[in-house]
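Please predict the structure of the following assembly.
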Amino acid sequence: MCIAIPGKVLEIYKYEALVDFGKIQKRVNTSLIEDIQINDYILVHAGYGVEKMNEQEALDTLSVFKMLCDDF
Amino acid sequence: MESLNRFKDIELTKRILAKTHKLKNRPQGSLNIMEVCGTHTMSIYKSGIDKLLPSYINLLSGPGCPVCVTDISYIDAALKLSENKEVIIATFGDMIRVPGSSGSLSSARANGAHIKIVYSPLDCIELARSHPEKEIVFLGIGFETTAPSIGLTIESAFHHSITNLSILLNLKTMPYAMENLIFDKSISIDAFICPGHVAAIIGTRPFDALAKKYHIPMVITGFECLDIVGAIYMLIEMINNHAYRCENLYKRIVKSEGNKTALALLDKVFEVTDSSWRGLGIIPKTGLSLKSDFKDFNALLKFGLTLPDVKVPPQCLCSDILRGVKKPPDCLLYKTRCTPSSPIGACMVSSEGTCMNFYKYNN
Ligand code: SF4
């Protein structure tokens, strides 16, 4: 039940956004996320947006994982 | 976002696993690495990571499944409430099959109790509006990840003067529960895989403080195979190097300060209290209760309920399973009297429960 799923923001309302999860689209409470923009990816749990995905940090972590294998 | 799919990269995962097997400078003896998040438990068993690691690495599942750590007394209180014809109980789906001392919410529903499965506590606002003649009670269990959604629900109900909604609250918090496990003499934990979505709310600092205080390496990580295998590799290196801190490999979501807006909301609605964990007993400072401004939403007060002291069923080893001391096959009831279709303990009910995952992926 702690599962949180990423989705793409399609539309923004006052405290909510319409989020695309691939198979379904759902309105999600976004009042705990700042500066939300259309096309952002957000992590959603139990009906609310937990946090915005940071693409640059994702790429940096992928490089850390690649570096782990570099000398192998 | 293309980068998200790259965390599912099997080739890279295999390379890190191979490197883990070939580590020359490996620590002496076996290593106990504990994860304390039900979603990590699910990912580990589903992908078989537990079977692909060198044999000296022992992955332990801790008390990371919120349904599993909910006391029987809480289920009994919910069952008592379900006898009230004025009440509609709203709950996450996993809760309804958890056995109380006599029956479960699922059996109560079959006998006519009003029990509704909701995806979010926020759905209860609409439920309360559309049933003004009923009392809606949400079963508010979960960790720091779920607490903000319950906080938002209470705030909204308060703001809109909704009076027929209350919460049977049993929110728990993780850092002091981890400290409790560190103190536990029956298990020696060498490193922790920290719960990524709890960290998204509370940040990295509480884990870093624990790692430094007790000299236990920790890594916050995501939920794909690459995230988990990468975290395990990093933990072994940290053990080797005596690196006692918490590394964050989930920076795509987790900020060191956490989600400040969510933390401010939690601070507004809740206060810290002690909490009773199934199998672990009462752990100080690991629960959240409603602040006095919001006491009208407290279902225990509203319905004059108490949580009776109830014992776990004899022979059920949930207590040892939740502390990583035993594995499901050590329980005499596992696969004999306790199965997913007829569970005896909560660890066999939830999709995040250790016994359930062991049953599903080791058969
Ligand atoms: S197998 Fe069933 S009875 Fe045994 S510890 Fe697991 S949940 Fe409890």
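The CA atoms of residues 43 and 51 of chain A lie 6 Å apart. Chain A touches chain B at residues 1-4, 6, 8, 29, 31-34, 41, 43, 45-48, 50-51, 53-55, 57-62, 64-66, 68-69, 72 (CB under 8 Å).
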